[in-house]
Structure formats: C-alpha cells, structure tokens
Amino acid sequence: MSNDATGRPDGEQVHPTQDDPVARALSEGVGGPIGARAGRHPWWTPVRVLLALTAVCFALGMLQKQSCYDDTWQDGTTRYTHMCYSDLPYLYTGRGLAERTWPYSDDEQVRARYPQVMEYPVGISYWAYGTALVTQAVTGWPDLAERLGRPTEELFGNPDVLSEIRIFVIVNALGFALVALLSTWLLAKVDPRRPWDAAIFAASPALALTALVNWDLLAVVFVAGALWAWARDRPVLTGVLIGLGAAVKLYPLFLLGAVLVICLRDRRLHDFLAATLWGAVAWVLANAPAYLTGREEWAVFWSFNSDRGPDLGSVWLVAAQAFDATITAHTVNLGSWLFFGAWCLGVLAVGLAAPTTPRMAQLGFLIVVGLLLVNKVYSPQYVLWLLPLAVLARPRWRDQIVWQSTEILYFASVWWYLNGDLAPGGGGDAGFYWVAILLRMAGELYLVALVVRDILRPAHDPAHDPAHDPARAPDRGDQLRSTRSNAVAV
To answer: Which Pfam families does this one have (predicted)?
Structure first.
C-alpha cells in the first residue's frame, strides 16, 4: 500500500485531531490527538457521532426559538430582540394553509380570499401544504366553516389557529431535523477518507440559528445528495437530485456548472448531458402538479423575483441607502446577471487552469457565492445555501469559524435593523447594518480566495487526494474502481 503526502496509507480515514490544527489544539483538553494505535469503538462510528452532533445542534436551534414559540410569534419585538423570527407561523395563515387551501388553486373564491400566492418554488409549497395537512390531522381536522366566515387577518389571533401554528412549527421542525440528519449522512459519505469533514456542518451555529427561519434547509439535502451521487460516479442520479433541488430552491441548478467544468476537463461530456437531461426531467415532473392546477399561481415565483428591487442584506441596498439613490428592479436584474455571468466565466477559467480536476464542492461553492454576492436579497437563512458546499470545499475549522462568524454577525444585525435598534439617535440610515453586510461579503470572499488557491495549488487543499494526481493516476477507470472499493470498505 502506498502512502500519501502526509505519510498516511492511501484510503485510510483522516482523523481531524491529526489533520486540522484547530481540532488538534482543542483535543488537548480531552486527552490530545488520536494515537497511531487507537482502536475503533464497536458502536460509535464516525457517522453515528456526526448524526448525534447534528441532533444536538438542531435541538439547540429549536431551543433558541423557545421565546417566540411560547407566545406563538405574536410579540413583534421579541421575535427580533430574541432573534427567533420564523416565516412559518405567518405563512400558515397568510397563504391559506390554515384553511387547507392548495397553494396553486385557481379557484376564484380562493384567490379573492388569498390574493397573495406562495412566492416560493413548488418544492417548498408542496412541503408547506403537506405539513399543514399533518398539522390538522394531529389537531383533529378542525371545521373550516367558522374560519371561512372571518376575515383572513383575524385568523392569526384565533386561539384554535394559534394552537395549530405551534403544532405546524413542530411538524416542520421534526421534518427539518430528519433532513439535517440525512444531509450530514450524505456529506460524511462523499469522501470515504474524510467523514469527519461533515462535523463542520453537523455542529454549525449557522445551521442551529437559521434552520427554522424558512424552508431553505429542504434544498440542502438535495445539494448534499448531488455531491454524494457525483462522488460515486452516478451522473444520472446527480442530475435528478439537482433537478429536484432546483424545484425547491433555484440555486442547486447552478451545480450543473460545476459538473460542466469537471466533464470538460475529464472529457466526459456524455455525463454532463446525462445529468442535465435527467435534471430537466426531474424538474419538469416536480413542477407539473403546480403548473397543471394553476398556471398563473405557478408563475408568481418567477414574477415576484423579477419585480423585486434592492432588499435586505444585499449590496444593492447598501448602495441605495448610502448614496440616497433609486435603483430599479431592472437595474438590479441586469447588473446581477452580468456580474454572475462574468463570475461563472472566471470559475470556468480557474477550473480549466487547475493542475488537477477540482472537486465538485469547490466549484459549486464558488458558483453559488457569485450568485449570492450580488443577489438582490440576502435573507439570513441563505447561509444554508453555502454551508454544505463550504464545509467540503475548505474543510478547515479555522477558516469555517472565520466565515461563519461573519454570517452570525449578519444574522444578529438583520433582526436589530428590522427592530430599529441600529438607527442613529439623530436619524438617518443604519450604517452598522451596512458594515455587517460588507463583513459578511468579506467572509465569503475570504473563503473564495482560499478555495481558488486550493484549486490552483492542490498541495494547500486539505481534502486533496494524491491518488488523483495525474502522475499517480493516469487511468480514470482505476480511480473510479478505487473510489468504489473504498466506499464499500467503509
């Protein structure tokens, strides 16, 4: 058996206390780094430890929302000062879920009562509708006749509805917990040598704080699944998972850009075409029920995002407020897409110039960061878009702590901003909020710089596998057989 650059036998699992300086330093308080003769626990495998970490992290996130849960998100100040805001309670009544209204119903009476349609992709709408049905099944299928006789704005204060809202949040939270556990499992399996890299996801404070803000976590499992499927040389499954992910949130679609770069380098365009084709099929099939039952309602997501101007967390909002300028939605759309197009060309150039083929997580991370840097809105839960990609693109605790610290600062500042706590005493704009936005962007660019360096100089990449160096692995078939054999052995 040959050894890699660290002297470790090829294919052997990497332990963080031997590989990561921060993990090594922290381990001194509990006995120090793992020794060369350390045995394996008969039950606590790395994956099981990671799942336990995820469960604890998610439970802490639910506990962090306790104060809002206690008053069913009715206190407009607490939800900001305690940073426990969630969209879920308000959309339960605001989008007709409390009356079991199908999100894409084109019934005239329904649309007259609920003119505002779910503004999310279909995957989220299906999940929200499904969890609303589960909620009402648990609460005994309440009679809707009494509710239909009230104005919709009164529903949120109805005691019976408030009880349902709490159950609705619990049902969603339990579902999200399963999604987070599955995401951890998939991330741990991407590289059989490095299951512990998923610990950065499993113990992430960003995951704990933002998982219940909205339904964005649903897309994370499809991203993790696509990374797992591609690592096992399954382009069709990769495409299907990307397509389903894009039906939940649009951004997983751009992972096809990472697939394209890899396939161009490895002369595997047939794999890219297969992934793209099956991704399109999965997306169409996922959208079909919504499109067929309410075409206009289905189109609301697209028009809503197109007509949106500079919004929370965006550099466009900073520019508009700092320079007292009016920036139209058209300007934001045009500027964002031009920047993103140029950014993707840059990622393509970096990927093709690399001495070895970059990993999908590295390329995917770079692409999604480019999308978020100039997006017209950056809701606090958007950190989840980057999280699974970032932890595998740059699996170093120090760098992840630096980046996630800026995200947590932004998470806190957005609630302070909405509560008016950052407004200067003499009036004017909240400059500290601009600083938080720019620091968050700086944290993302910090990781971008490290990932680009790792791609161009693989010796710096913590997850680089020397077995994939051209000098050591001239035949791709041998690489794939080795990967499969390692996956079976784990």
So the answer is: GT87
